[in-house]
C-alpha cells in the first residue's frame, strides 16, 4: 500500500499504528559485511520521526557487546535501489531494514541473506517472543530470513457510528450484511463505503481480503512464491466478480475514481458523515485523531473484514502491513552478534520504546502493556486482531515484484472503473510475468 509520507504524518499525530512503509535512500557509512571497521557491523535503518527506538536499542546493545553496531540512518528516497547496489558491493550493510516478502526475495535467491533457522532451533524463545502470524511473514520458501522490528498495521473496516445507527445498520460481519447495508445507507443519502479510487492501492485491500476469505491465504502464497498460474485460481475470479457486484450496487458511490485518501478525501467523508464506512489500514485511526479528534474519540468504530459464506478462508485472517523487518547479510563477519541484536528486539525496553512512540509492537509481551497507551481500546482491538490471526498476509504490492505489482494495480483500477470485466481482469493478470 503506497501512501508513504502520508502514513508517517498520521503516525506522528499520535495514533496507534505501526510499521512505516516508506522508500529509503541516502547514505551509509563503510560497510561491515564486506569489511568495515574492526570489530563492528553496519546497521541500516529508516530515517523517520519514529526511529528513536532503534537508535536506543543499538546504544543499549553496544554497552555490553564486544562487537559494536554502527548505526546508519538512511534517508527517504531510493532506499531499495541503494540496498540493491550495496548488496552487490563491498559496502553492504550487515543488518538492514526491509519489508520482507518481495523486498528480500532476490537476495534470498542469490544466497545473500543469512537463514535464521539454526538460531531459532537452538533458542526457540527467539521466535516464541513474537506474535506467530507476524514472525512468519519473515519467511521465504519456508525459511526465516527476517525478524519484526516495528509495530503492526492490519487493514480493518472503520465506520461512523452515528451514520450507521441513523440508517438502521450495524457494522457488517459478513458480505451478506455488506450487500444488505448498501441500499439502506444509500437511501440515507450517504456513500456506503468511502473509497479513494484515485490510488488503486486502496482498491487492492478489497481484492486481498476477498481472495483470502474465498480461497484462503494459500491462493496468494502460490503467486508470491513465483507461480503466476496462481492467478487462475477460482478465488481470483470470484473475488473480481464480487468487486463488480459491489461497484454495480453503488457500494462506493459514483465518483470514487477521483477521490483521494486522507484529509479532504475519504477520511473527511467518513468523519463528516458523508460515508458510512471505509476499509483502511489502522493508520486511519491516527489520521482521524489528528484531523478530527472528537470524531475519533467518540464516533469512530472499527471491525474486522467480513466473512464470505462458503469461503475456504478463515474469517480471522488479516491482510495489511504485518511489520517492518531486519535481515542479516550472509557475508557478515559477526553473525552471532547480528543474531544477538535481533533477539534484543523482543526485550521489554524495546517494546516500551515502541509503545511510547505510538506503535503496537509485535511481541507477545505487548498485550500486558496496551492499557497504558494513549488509546487503549483501539490498541487492544488491533493487537488482538493480529494475535488471533492464523494468517497475516503482506500487502500484495509489497509482497511481489514491482514488475508485477505495478501492472496489477493498473488492471485492478480498470476493474473497479468498469473498463474490464472480471474475466478480462483475470486474463490480464495471468499474462503478467
UniProtKB/TrEMBL annotation:
Signal peptide interval: 1-33
By what name is this protein known?
Xylobiose transport system substrate-binding protein
Q: Which UniProt keywords apply?
A: Signal
Q: Which SUPFAM superfamilies match?
A: Periplasmic binding protein-like II
Transmembrane stretches, by residue range?
none
